[in-house]
């Protein structure tokens, strides 16, 4: 396979030159290629935002839905067709600004990968603060600086005992590819929070800033140690990159009764319309 297998022709990519989204796009294509996942075996799901445009730039199956609602759709796609590799790709505003789907997807543990472009601003709507914006960051809307402390997705995911939690940096494509591969291969919900510079609206968290304020976890680190992982998640002076927490556990797909007797994907099964109609009629109130 070649990364060109995922390329679309005559694209007008709606990202600024130098945007960190390009690094993530290239890293995912490379990871999929190395894992030999073909375009027809892949379903990309996204919401709304600059990052959520990314799936339009792959040749694959695609669902582009509502803001903050991509995770429930991805869960359903995987439940109906477990044979697909399902990846959710959206931004920090779309993913973390709508916390309920994020929280309950972690709890359900569907076998999907969630890649979040974390640029710490809303890039599509001209740079106002997002859930992960640093305290006191000045934006065109928050002219006196952001008041709340930034949302910590890594700490929240670990507190909910997520099965895979990682962080990457879009400027380090080679390392990001390896983290993406581990996430995609993981059985269960895999969160990859990717630091992604917004060169237009975020003049604080630049490529240099991320280089100077991150470090990679070494081989001595144990990602199965939840207490140590939570301590890493709460570091704020220098942010760890790599797989921060691993907690293998049964997936949502495995818990579904429809797969207890047969592993045949739901979309391949014939629908018993009489049984379905009888069920609907039995539930009518009037």
The largest beta-sheet arranges its strands as: 2-1-3-4-8-7-10-9
How many beta-strand runs? 10
Amount of helix = 25-40%
Report the CATH topology name.
Answer: Rossmann fold
Q: Write down the overall mean pLDDT.
A: 92
> Which architecture does the CATH hierarchy give at level 2?
3-Layer(aba) Sandwich
Strand percent estimate: 15-25%
Q: Element order, helices and strands?
A: HEEHEHHEEEHEHEHEHEHH
Main sheet makeup? 8 strands, mixed
The oligomeric state is single chain
In the CATH scheme, the class would be Alpha Beta
Structural class: alpha/beta
Q: Say which CATH homologous superfamily is assigned.
A: Thiamin diphosphate (ThDP)-binding fold, Pyr/PP domains
What count of helical segments does DSSP give? 10
Structural Rg: 20 Å
Poorly predicted sequence stretches spanning 5 or more consecutive residues? none
Q: How would you describe the shape?
A: globular
Total domain count: 1
Tell me the distance between the termini. 57 Å
